[in-house]
Amino acid sequence: MSRSSATVFASLAVIAALVNAIYILPEWEQAVVTQFGRPVGSPIVKSGPHLKVPFIQRVRRFDKRILNWDGYPNQIPTKDKKYIMVDTTARWRITDPLLFLQTVQTEAGARMRLDGILDAATRDVISSRNLVEAVRNSNKILDELKARAGKEVAPGGEEEEIVGEIEAVTVGRESLSGMIIARGKAGLKEFGIELIDVQLRHISYEASVEAKVYERMISERQRIAQKIRSVGLGERSKIQGKIGKDLQKIDSEAYRRAQEIEGEADARAIAIYARAMNSDPSFYEFVRTLEAYKKIPPGSRMILSTDSRFLELMRRR
Amino acid sequence: MAESWDESKKRHPDWLRTLAAKFHAGPGFERRFLLLFTCAAGALALATSVYTVEPSEEAVVLRLGRYVSTEPPGLHMRLPFGVDRVTKVKTKVILQEEFGFRSSGEDGTRTTYGNDDLKSESLTLTGDLNVANVEWIVQYQISDPKKYLFNAREVLKNLRDISQSVLRRVVGDRIVSQVLTTGRVEIAEEAQRLTQEVLDRYDIGVRIVTVKLQDVNPPESVRPAFNEVNAAKQEQEKVINQAEREYNTVIPEAMGKAEQTIRNAQGYATAAVNRAEGDAARFRVVLKAYQASSRVTRSRLYLETMEALYGRMEALTIIDKGASGVLPVYMQGKDAAPAGDNK
Fold it and tell me: Which long-range contacts (CB under 8 A, 24 or more apart) does B63-68 make?
C-alpha cells in the first residue's frame, strides 16, 4: 500500500466517523442512544443536530407526535343482552422512549399491547352496562320530555311522540370513554405510553339484529302514523263540538239579549202609558173603549139590548 | 457483443481523444475546469436556496431538523444542501372531509357509493335506539402549520375519527324524528363545537370552519314507514283544516244572525217606547181639551163612535130587555161580536 492511498483511506475513515457521529432529530422525533444495546444517558427529545460516539453508539428514533390506534370492530353483548358492534379509536403518544424501547421496542409491538388492553377495557366497560349508556350522553331527551309534559302542548304539535320508553342513562357515552381511558392509561403506563383519548367511533347493531331493529322501527312508525291520524280525527271532532257549542252560545245569548232589550222597552212603555193615563183613568178607559169599538170589523152583526144607552131616547116614549 | 463494443469505440474515438488531449493540455485547462466546477456548484447552491410560497400556503422551515420559522407567501431564501428543509402547508385553503358519501370527479357532482364501508360510516344510532343514515361534511382549515406538522402524525385521520365520534354522540342524544327533521342545524352546530373542543385538546392546529349535515335519512327498508308518518301528518292537517273551515263558515254567520236578532230587539224597543210616548202625548193633549167641557165631549164621542160603528154593521138586532131565551141564531163565525155598551 502506497503512502498516498493510506492518507486517502485515513481521511475517508475520519469523514465517515464524523458523519456517523452527527445525527439530526427533526421536530417530531425523539431518540434513545444505545451502546452495544445498553441505553446511554437519558432520552433525547430536543430537535436539531446531536453528537454520539461513532459506530459504537446507535440511535433509536421514536415518534414524538400523537399517534393513532384503530380498534378492530368488536361484537360485544351489553348488559341488557343486545349485541352491538363497537368500533373504537385511540390517540396515544410515546412519553418515555426508554421504557418504550425496553418493553415494546417498536410501534408495532406497542399496537399489539394497545389492542389487548383497549379491547379488554372496552369490552369490560360496555358489557357491564345497558346499550343506552353507550348511545346517549345525557338524559337530555328525558328532560325535554318532562319539560314538555309540564306544558300543555298545542294540538297537532306533539304528533311525533316517542314510542316506547326512554331509559334513563346513569353514566353516558362520554363517561364510558372516560372509563376506558382510565383503565387503558393504567395498563399502558408501564410501556412508556400515554393514552390521550379513546373515542367510541361507531356503535351499531350486529347484522342479524339489524333486521329486527328495522322491523321494530317500521312498526313504531306505523303506530305513530296511526296516532297522528287519530289525533287529527279527534281534533276534527273537537272543532265540530266547538261549532255546536259556540252556535248554541251565540244563539242563546242573542235571544237573551233581545228579550232583555224588548222587556225593558215594554216596561218603559208601560210606565209611560201609566203615567199619562193616571191623570184621568176613567177618561182613558172611556176613550180606549171607544177606540176598541172602532176596530170592530165592518160587516159584523150585532145584537143590542133595549137598555143600551144608545137606545135610551128610543125607550123614552 | 464484441462487435457492438467495437462499433461504439469506432464511433466515439474522436471526442475521447480530444478530451484526453485537453487533459494533457496543461494548467490552463485545469484552472478553467475548476472555475467551471465552482460556478456550477454556486449555481446549484443558489437554485436550492431560493423557494417560493404560494398565496394559499405558509412554509415551515426546519434547520437541521429544528423548527426555525413559518414564512408567509412570497420569495424566500434558505440554507442550501438540505440544511434548511421547507414544508409548505396550505393554510388558507378550506379543506373538506366527507362522511357517509364521497364526492366524485372534477365536476363535483355527487355520487353515493353503496359500499359497506360508507354505509357503516353513516349509520348512526339515535337516542331512542333507532337507526338513521347521517351524511355530513366537515370543512376545516389548518390554523397553525407548526402544530399541524409536529403535534400529530395523521391529522386527517384524527379529524375523521373525532368527527365521527362526536357526531354520533350528538345524534345519540336526540330522538330519530328530531335527527331527521328539526334537529339538523342544532346537531351540526353542537358537533362543530364539540369537535373543535376535542381538536383543541389535541392541539393539532386545525380549525373547524363548519360542520354541515347532508342527507339524513332513515335506513332504506324503513323509509316507507317514515313516509307514512309524513303522509299521516298531512292527513291530520287536512282533516283539521277542513274542520276549521267548517267552523269558519258556520260561526261568523251565526254571529251575524245573533247581531240581527239583537238589532231587531233594539228596533222593537225603540218603537215600543216611541209608540208609548206618542200615545201618552196624544192622550194628554186630548185630555186637556176634554176636561174643558167634559160632559158634552163625552157624549159626543160616545155617540159618534156608536154611530160609525153601527153604520158599519151588516145587521143590527135589537132585543127587548125583558125577552129572554133568545137563541143566538145570528151569531155565526166571525160576525160574532159582543153586544151592548159598557156603561
Answer: B63/A48, B64/A24, B64/A48, B64/A49, B65/A24, B65/A25, B65/A26, B65/A27, B65/A29, B65/A47, B65/A48, B65/A49, B66/A26, B66/A27, B66/A47, B66/A48, B67/A27, B67/A47, B67/B146, B67/B150
